Amino acid sequence: MTVKIHYNDIAENYDQLRESDSDTLEKLVTRSGISQHSRILEIGCGTGNYITALQRYVGCRCWGADPSTEMIQRAQLHNAKVLFSMKPAENLGHQNEFFDLVFSVDVIHHVDNCARYFQEAFRVLKPQGLLATVTDSDDTIRRRMPLSFYFPETIDLEIGRYPTLSKLKHFSRNAGFEEMDNDIAETPFELTDSEKYERKAFSCLRLLPEDVLAAGVSRMKRDLHRGPISCVSRSYLLWSKKPAKTPTLPTANTRC
User: Fold this and answer.
1) Does any domain span residue 68?
2) 80 φ, ψ to 5°?
3) Tell me, what DSSP letter sits at residue 145?
4) CA 178 to CA 244: how far, in whole Å?
5) How far apart are CA 166 and CA 136, in angstroms?
6) CATH of the domain at 115
7) What does the DSSP 8-state code read for residue 109?
8) Mean pLDDT by 10 residues, the chain (256 residues)
9) What's the pLDDT at 16?
């Protein structure tokens, strides 16, 4: 199921309320082996949280691509050393074999054509370059805390939105990538207020009826009145490696 979220309309909330997960960032750096000499592209960069953090931490050359005008405009304010462009995942516009690492974070379920996402990433990566697709599995969706706990109605919605891991691995193989071992990133945190959820900083909350959203926020506020809520942010990192020698592959238009 494809559900369209209009990101130009919610860029301000994303910019103010969303942040990068520390364990996801650490795994992107350590697993990829990037250095200050690397070239990195984030697909669906939004307001630039991840690519900005990587550029500042590693000091490498970085690019970000996103189809939303408002997201890109806000991203450009955060780090002038990152080159941002308004491009969709299926048509990145960069030259062949240019990047050492391409990654996306919680973006693949918004991509119209998953096969093209992998094909474009394959095209712009250098031989032996890496693609990291940070996404969610059925398990990580069900275990979301606090999102799935206070808004259990999002679970089936999200499982319907996210391509399965088996589908993503299929698209990756068909694009020519080699399979690699994958990671689960886990970042514990303490929730101290409900602002992100009241302002619908997570796109799935925008799919809920207002009364359902209000009921979940009310339960959250009740528990917050007793003190901070212990939470864990989890993500699945699907790693794909471009082989040293590029195979000849058929063109595919399979959608998510």
Assistant:
1) yes
2) -70, -15
3) B
4) 10
5) 12
6) 3.40.50.150
7) G
8) 47 52 93 96 94 94 94 88 95 95 96 96 97 96 96 96 96 96 94 93 92 98 98 96 74 58
9) 46
Task: For residue 208, tell me if it sits in a domain.
Answer: no
Strand, coil or helix: 49? helix
Parallel, antiparallel, or unpaired: how do β-strands 61-65 and 99-105 relate? unpaired
Task: Judge whether 172 lies within some domain.
Answer: yes
From first CA to last CA, the distance across the chain in angstroms is 9
Burial class for 73, CB neighbours closer than 10 Å (0-12, 13-18, 19+): middle
Quote the number of domains for the chain.
1
Asked whether residue 54 is assigned to any structural domain, the reply reads yes
Provide the whole-model pTM: 0.89
Which residue do the tokens 């080159």 mark?
A: 83
Tell me the C-alpha distance between 237 and 167, whole Å: 14
3-state percent helix, strand, coil for the chain, nearest multiple of 5? 45, 20, 35
